[in-house]
Amino acid sequence: MTYPILIYGHPILRKVATDIDKDYSGLQQLIDDLFDTMYKSEGVGLAAPQIGKSVRIFVIDGAPVSDDIPELADFKKAFINAHITERSGDPEPMSEGCLSIPNLREEVYRESTIRIQYYDPDWTYHDEVYEGYIARVIQHEYDHLDGVLFTDRVSPLRKRLLRGKLNAISKGKFEADYRTVLPGQKIRSL
Ligand SMILES: [Zn+2]
Fold first, then answer.
1. What are the CA-CA distances from residue 21 to residues 9, 26, 82, 120 (Å)?
2. 24 C-alpha vs ligand 1 centroid, how far in Å?
């Protein structure tokens, strides 16, 4: 089952998502739906709040960009109850985009190394360190669990310059090859 992607300005994207219990109803279905929705919209990662579920889950599959970023070739994971416990390394810039903010890319500074604790879909606990591009993708998706979007992480000047564009995006002025939900619209799965 796939879901439409919530677009910038939708209040669910700004909520701090909550941890779930092991017996959370429909967990495997939700993870399958996140992967299906991510593949359909050609993203590398997708967080549950982006489909309207305010829980601390995100999925990543780097296969589509493995030609450009070989380290992502075999990286396919679901992170449940994710918590980043450490970040280190000098913040480095890289261009980012987001399915919830179509047609917009900005340079974002992020730390190069992170430590993250989470459960996988078999409810096995992990405490892992990542660096490089994988650490960046994880940090981007993880931000969604805290109600943070990559445009929050640009300079104050860029933020001012982006205000009009973001406003237009929240009103539906963008091109996307996937289904979307604007602020105020209803979420319907297919
Ligand atoms: Zn995003």
1. 29, 11, 13, 13
2. 24
Q: Which residues are catalytic?
A: 141
Query: Which residues are within 5 Å of ligand 1 (an ion), measured at CB?
Result: 98
- Count how many residues are written for the chain: 190
Q: Ligand 1 center to residue 108 CA distance, Å? A: 12
Distance 141 CA to ligand 1 centre (A): 6
Q: Parallel, antiparallel, or unpaired: how do β-strands 125-131 and 180-181 relate?
A: unpaired
Give pLDDT tens digits along the chain (190 positions).
999 999 999 999 999 999 999 999 999 999 999 999 999 998 899 999 999 999 999 999 988 777 888 888 889 999 999 999 999 999 999 999 999 999 999 999 999 999 999 999 999 999 999 999 999 999 999 999 999 999 999 999 999 999 999 999 999 999 999 999 999 998 887 7
- Residue 15: exposure state from Cβ atoms within 10 A (0-12, 13-18, ≥19): middle
User: From ligand 1's centre to the CA of 21, what distance in Å?
Assistant: 24
Contact 52, 80 (CB under 8 A): no
Question: What distances in angstroms separate CA 97 from CA 28, 54, 185, one per listed residue?
Answer: 27, 21, 23
Helices (H), the chain: 27-40, 132-145, 156-170
